[in-house]
Amino acid sequence: FLSKEYKYENLILAILAIFAIVLGALIVAEILQVSPDFFLIGGFPKVFAWILISLGVVSLLLVLWPFYRPSLVELRHVTGSKRSEFISNVVVVLIFVLFLVGVFILYDLGIGAFIKWVS
Q: Quick one: which of 44, 47, 57, 60 has its CA closest to 12?
C-alpha cells in the first residue's frame, strides 16, 4: 500500500515543500498577514509560519534523500591521500589560482585601457 511510488510524486512534494517554506517565510516577515479572527491560526500566525517552514524543510529532505543515499554508500569506499600527494595537490591548486588572478588582472587592465581609449 505505502511502498508504491508514483511517477511525479517527488516533484509534487518538492513543489509543495518550497511553497510551504516561502509561505511560512512571508508570514514570519509579516509581508503576508493572517487575519486575527481566522480559525485556529489567527491568534498564532508566527507559530503557524514556523510549522509550515519546518514541514517544508522535512519534505525537502524526504525528496532529496533518495538522491543522496547511494553517495553515502560510496563515501565508505573513499580513502584519504598521502601527505606528499595532498601537499602537491594544494600547490597545484594555489598555482592555478594565482594564474587565474593574473589572467583576470590582465583582462581588467586591457578592458580599462580600451574604455579609456574609447572615451
A: 60
